[in-house]
Amino acid sequence: MSDSLTLIDMFVRGIASGAMLVTGLALAAGPLSRQVRLSGGLLALSIACWLMTESSTLWAALDRFYPLVLPAYAVGACFWLFVLTVFDDRPIAPLSWAPIALLVVSGIACELMPPDERQPIWMARNAFSGLLLLHATYVVLRSWPGDLLEQRRRLRAPILGFAAFYGITNVAIGLINRVEPHESWLLWTAGWPYGGAIFAVIVVAGAVVFLQARPTLFGGVRREAVSADARAEAADRVLAGRLNDLMTGGAWRREGLTIGALARELGEPEYRLRRLINQRMGHRNFADFVNGFRIEAAMARLGDPSEARTTVATIAFDLGYGSLGPFNRAFRAATGATPTEWRRQALQASPELQEAV
């Protein structure tokens, strides 16, 4: 690699790393939720460190300052956590930190092992990071139709989708190269100038977009003030009433219910229904809106003495959930307790019901 290309590479990485650190500080210090500050700040730090440590030249220029490696080890897990908290609105649970801890600990272990013994672990780490990135991509795509924040919907494809694809490509090339070395492929990975330049462009673009979109992307839902247009206001009230009638009539029980299906049933454009549920009813995503009805019904059934022998899974499936995991997450997010804990507390006053449970 020529000296001029090396200097350009170091300069580009420096710009991208600086952009990430500024973004991380803005997110960590901003008036945002705790989970967004944690996941956003940690992702920015890990990407900045990864950009610096992946380049052998820049890494040597930094005198191999070892603490920079620790956040870099977990860049895939940090991206995964960021996607779940920001684009899927999931709270950060204690178990959410496990992938980050696993990648950091295994990375340290590899550094301490003889070179000829570390390869299987490095390959396993890369494969695990690839699986996390695949899951993040799946989450981005799965929750896309129900996203009610227009700014967030627009960001999914150009920024997160491409970033996830590039990350998965890097992991795949790294795994293939360890089995059958081929230097021409490595030129497009993050450790080499061409790949580093591509990733730097993604990073800088992401930093600019996230900083500009921060209030609407990461902030809480702001309900729209009453419209000055009396006709539009009246039309919204009518639509809200029709929507409420449809939902209270049991539409929320349908498994796989989508906002598109509701819009077609109401005979309204989908964008109008999105705007109504987001700006008038205060929901960030369609699942949150539907879960409001489902969790209310779940609480009624879990606290009903006649339902004491009905399993939590049966109740979840009856309410339209396809599996127990999403029901448990939604219930805990709404009540602060698991369905089992909530049922135990609701029935605690009756000794005979305790035996039934």
Give an overview in words.
The chain is an all-alpha fold and 357 residues long. It has 2 domains: 216 residues, Rhopdopsin 7-helix transmembrane proteins (Up-down Bundle); 127 residues, Homeodomain-like (Arc Repressor Mutant, subunit A). Helix content is 74%, strand content 0%. The chain is built from 18 helices and no strands. The protein is globular. 33% of the residues are buried.
What distinguishing features does this structure have?
single chain, 357 residues, mainly alpha, Rhopdopsin 7-helix transmembrane proteins, Arc Repressor Mutant, subunit A, 74% helix, globular
Short account of what is shown:
By secondary structure, this protein is mostly helical.
Distance, first to last CA: 70 Å
Number of strands: 0
Content-based structural category: mainly alpha
Number of individual domains: 2
Return the CATH topology of the largest domain: Rhopdopsin 7-helix transmembrane proteins
Number of H/I helices: 18
Mean pLDDT: 82
- What is the alpha-carbon Rg in Å? 24 Å
SSE arrangement, N to C: HHHHHHHHHHHHHHHHHH
The main sheet comes to: none
Outline:
globular
Low-confidence stretches: none
Which percent range fits the helix content?
Answer: over 70%
Please identify the top-level CATH class of the largest domain.
Answer: Mainly Alpha
